[in-house]
Amino acid sequence: SVPLSFFGGIGGASKAGILIKGSNYLELLSQSEIVVFDKTGTLTKGVFKVQEINPKGMSKSSLLELTTYAENYSNHPISISLKEAYGKEIDGSKVTESEEIAGHGVRAVINGNIVYAGNYKLMDKIGVKYFKGDVIGTVVHVAVNDKYAGYILISDEIKSDSKDAIRKLKKSNIKKTVMLTGDAKRVGEQVANELAMDLVYTELLPVDKVEKVEALLKSKSDKGKLAFVGDGINDAPVLARSDIGIAMGGLGSDAAIEAADIVIMTDEPSKIATAMNISKRTLKIVK
Ligand code: ADP
Ligand code: MG
Predict the structure, then answer these.
(1) Residue from 100, 101, 119, 205 whose mutation best tests the ligand 1 pocket (most atoms within 8 A of CB)
(2) Is residue 243 flagged as an active site residue?
(3) What are the C-alpha distances in Å from 282 to residues 5, 8, 172?
(4) For 235-284, what is each residue's pLDDT tens digit?
(5) pLDDT tens column, 129-183
């Protein structure tokens, strides 16, 4: 049977906005050794701001419009931010086909034109030449009927709570803090450096994230546990593969909340250290 103080631990956590889906996760949390984070929406706000619109062969407003239409059916933070910047209603009847390409971007048919919007990997995939200059931020390249139409530069901000989150984990004896992201190398490394994280892997597809988690699982001690923290979009497989899957409930997708063992109801990653401290205290009472 479950010792009574476990309920106290789960209750205390829930008052702090941390939903723990079973008493066994309290025990696992107290043994955490590696904490792996997704970047977008977890350590960063997931609210991208448009910084630059660089069209090729069309006006800036046309490029923004086209890209937003292509993103019509996506719920990715990038898509939400573009819709915000566009600010007008989308006439959905003009979008006759639409598909999300995980870790790459989107493909849509707009007024009979085939439009791709996403990162350089997407452009490589369809064989379209793109702007290769050095910029700081996330680049959304756009191609129309296999011709490059320019790019939109967007950028996200680190959450004010993230530095504290990493610092507190270090203080509570976590051996490694790791960031996994599908975003560009420069962007991921800049965020990881600023937060003083131990390891960062960038430009990963969802399957690459699972692979990295598997390698990290092998690298830890027998008793130590690995926790993964994600906001959800495409993260369900890694959440399932980790010893402890933690979803950020603020922006998180339903699929992630479903796949997670623990849900942080606010958008504060420092709540992970809070949860670990609650679990250690609870375990002390039980033992
Ligand atoms: P993250 O690890 O940052 O959560 P994702 O796997 O969600 O990454 O996305 C990885 C990259 O794929 C993004 O940084 C972006 O370049 C591209 N991408 C994904 N979805 C979209 C989209 N809807 N529109 C444009 N680009 C996208
Ligand atoms: Mg994500």
Answers:
(1) 119
(2) no
(3) 6, 8, 15
(4) 888 988 999 999 987 655 677 778 889 999 998 999 999 999 999 988 87
(5) 999 988 889 999 999 999 999 999 999 999 999 999 999 999 988 999 999 999 9
CB distance 209 to ligand 1 below 6 Å: no
| pTM, rounded to two decimals | 0.88
CA dist 91 and 134 (Å) reads: 35
The rounded distance, in Å, linking the Cα atoms of 93 and 98 is 12
If you search the block for the tokens 């069209």, which residue do you land on?
A: 55
Give phi and psi for 65, each to the nearest 5. Answer: -65, -45
Q: Please choose from 37, 45, 78 the residue to mutate so as to test ligand 1's pocket, defined by most ligand atoms within 8 A of CB.
A: 78
Q: What is the CATH number of the domain that holds 206?
A: 3.40.50.1000
Q: Answer yes or no: do 104 and 240 share one domain.
A: no
- The tally of domains found in the chain comes to 2
Question: Distance from the CA of 71 to the center of ligand 1, in angstroms?
Answer: 12
Cα gap 263→52, rounded to integer Å: 35
Would you say the CB of residue 30 lies under 6 angstroms from ligand 1? no
Q: Is the shortest distance between the CB of 42 and ligand 1 below 6 Å?
A: no
CA distance 260 to 242: 10
- Find the domain containing 241 and state its range: 4-45+158-286
Copy the structure tokens of residue 39.
């970047």
Q: Measure 234 CA to ligand 1 centroid, in angstroms.
A: 10
